[in-house]
Design a protein that fits this description.
CATH topology of the largest domain in chain A: Quinone Oxidoreductase, Chain A, domain 1
Shape of chain A: globular
Number of helices of chain A: 12
Radius of gyration of chain A: 23 Å
Largest interface: A-B, 28 and 28 residues
Oligomer: homodimer
Order of helices and strands of chain A: EHEEHEEEEHHEHEHEHEHEEHEHHEHE
Number of domains of chain A: 2
CATH class of the largest domain in chain A: Alpha Beta
CATH superfamily of the largest domain in chain A: Medium-chain alcohol dehydrogenases, catalytic domain
Distance between the termini of chain A: 32 Å
């Protein structure tokens, strides 16, 4: 639902939440005297313009089957910005707790939270548990929220850092699942990927290396290429190349054949798009899969008929959100356990705290300034929100 | 193996075949006094220039496990011309019976033959049986040949016309398999295809109609569109459109939605390529498959990331030759039986007889003149060779 910009003016006044049930004695560990804060928008548009913060009161007791959670860290992912721009196929539902009029949306698809109160009938969770919400567009850019226990996956608390846990539901599972769902890869097999320095790309390198799978990794040319190559090789990359190396196509194909000693390259992962994909594709062997999970160049891929017909190439996509939709709680927990057990390197990150001492106007300015930095593409690491509970 | 053009001059003289085994009393129904004829080439190049005919003696008795066959009708398929041009990924082996030097190639991938002699140990075949060879590039443009019984599929003689049987191994199975191998289509489902007037396209229409599957069929605009539409609808087409109708994309999508009453289009078949494919793709539903089996426009297809990632689109190819390679005799026979039982309309065709009375020079001229007609693309129907045994 898209409302006009003018609706935002109504947010300035605190909105008493008449729909809250009466507090009960067993209610939460949070102090009722402290309130919560969400990053919100009322209509799709540029996030560096449209985002505000919004303060709301302490959560009521969770209803049966639900839990209250407090977010510890919530990352800014590129797809979050697409959602706010309206350029993503899934939009969050309006947040009816924040505004019964259905005119407020909370972005954020990922984050680490802690359970603060447990509703009746929830056996699997306790206060203090670390959890992630495996439901897409659940709105994680918020200090606290009530969620259905069935949408929650518990993490083993001591086994994973805060930043790793806050970024565990999207990128590492994308890498993990793309490496197992399409081609039955064995030790010694070869794969190729572009955008190898992305969060997913780095997870692919690490997971493949753990399984003894060789990776050919393409990145943009840059002044500090040697340094990046060294860093990706330290993660387990077999070979690192730049897109410039694709220009001499014959040489590239020959080089790959030498590396693989003629073994087929069985899987290609693509998060870029454009003409380089067609060039990379030429080294793929019989019955290979080309899996697209992003489109950073915002260009389609061009596929000649010949590899489709004669080489059995299969071109498809992967979307972790869809995976969660089509898999139950047990599969999700197994996935999280498997990923934690891989002990992937914590992502390079920066935490941006929204201090509790700021009022909503100041907090909103900080949010928009941070988004501007992300949009400029110069940060070079993952930014995570830490949204403090606003002071009285 | 590609030899120089000059080698052809050696063909003028009849080549005695010293490698033939001694004749046995049980040998064949053919008269030893009559010889055979093949259409041949010695090097890849334009078929209207490079093809010759070549006369060779009566076949020896088939060795154990083999049968001798006489071809009744062998079609000219577009891929045959690609093979002769060297523009196909599979080339025939040199015909070592015709020339032990390995410098003669016999084109032809399809055709109806009759068994004329049966080698020891072959239980399943008798003299007079109608058969097809389900082995790619076996060289069917020949009056007679010895083949391994295991490569042969027997047809029920009275159940199918000569022209249908001669064109049964490539196009109808391509249509039949594409409609069953990728998407589990149910009665009432919708599919879309381009090149709907091609041999495969017409088979798709008929097979889909038998199964209660609705087809949206795209063809080139032409003066006699209404006539073609009527003809395809008589075969069972649900709707027939021209590529011009794709230009008004919104209208096209809306039209399709009205027809399908919102049901998803689950399969798209493509033998053309180019930008129209991207336009047609937009009407596909969740988890649809786009299957390419040809590239008449000789242009790649352009695939945006969004349908791959968010709609689960799978883009792949189909090649009937590969299917035969990966399926055994039982599967092949079942396939032929299933297709014969569908009673598809006999293809519009013209039979070009290479009369036994012509010498090789005259016969070669007739072959090249026929190929020129096919290359011009104005024949409008399938041409089938009937290669008579040359007179003494």
């Amino acid at each position: 639902m898209i409302r006009s910009w003018r609706n935002l003016s109504t947010l300035a006044a605190f909105r008493p939440c008449a729909q809250y049930p009466a507090r009960s004695a067993s209610f939460s560990t949070s102090s009722a005297a402290r309130a919560n804060r969400a990053i919100v928008y009322t209509q799709v548009g540029h996030p560096a313009i449209n985002l505000r913060t919004y303060t709301f009161p302490t959560l009521p007791l969770p209803s049966p089957g639900s839990v209250n959670i407090r977010y510890r860290l919530s990352p800014i992912n590129p797809s979050d910005l697409n959602v706010i721009e309206g350029a993503y196929p899934v939009q969050p539902d309006p947040d009816m707790l924040l505004s019964p009029d259905g005119d407020l949306f909370v972005p954020g698809n990922e984050g680490l939270a802690e359970v603060t109160a447990v509703g009746d009938g929830v056996q699997s969770l306790s206060v203090g548990d670390w959890i992630v919400v495996a439901k897409q567009q659940s709105g994680t850019w918020v200090s606290a929220r009530t969620v259905r226990a069935e949408d929650v996956v518990k993490l083993p608390k001591g086994d994973v850092s805060e930043a790793s846990a806050a970024t565990i539901t999207v990128n590492p599972p994308t890498a993990y699942n793309m490496l197992r769902e399409f081609v039955d890869l064995k030790e010694g097999d070869w794969i190729i990927q572009n955008g190898a320095n992305s969060a997913v790309g780095q997870a692919v390198i690490q997971i493949a290396a753990r399984r003894g799978i060789n990776t050919i990794n393409l990145v943009r040319n840059r002044d500090d290429f040697e340094e990046l190559e060294k860093r990706l090789k330290a993660l387990g990359a077999t070979h690192v190349l730049t897109y410039d190396d694709l220009v001499a196509r014959r040489q590239f194909s020959k080089q790959v054949k030498e590396w693989t000693e003629g073994a087929p390259v069985r899987l290609m992962l693509n998060c870029i798009g454009g003409e380089n994909v067609t060039k990379m594709m030429k080294v793929l062997g019989l019955d290979a899969h080309l899996v697209t999970y992003g489109a950073m160049a915002r260009e389609p891929i061009s596929i000649p008929a010949s590899p489709l017909i004669f080489k059995g190439l299969v071109v498809r996509g992967f979307w972790q959100s869809r995976w969660y939709e089509t898999h139950g709680r047990k599969d999700r927990e197994e996935l999280m356990r498997a990923i934690i057990n891989l002990r992937l390197k914590e992502p390079d990150h920066e935490i941006v705290t929204i201090p509790g001492g700021l009022d909503d106007e100041e907090a909103g300015q900080l949010v928009r300034a941070t988004i501007r930095r992300v949009s400029e593409g110069t940060v070079g690491k993952k930014i995570l929100w830490r949204i403090e509970e606003p002071a009285d």
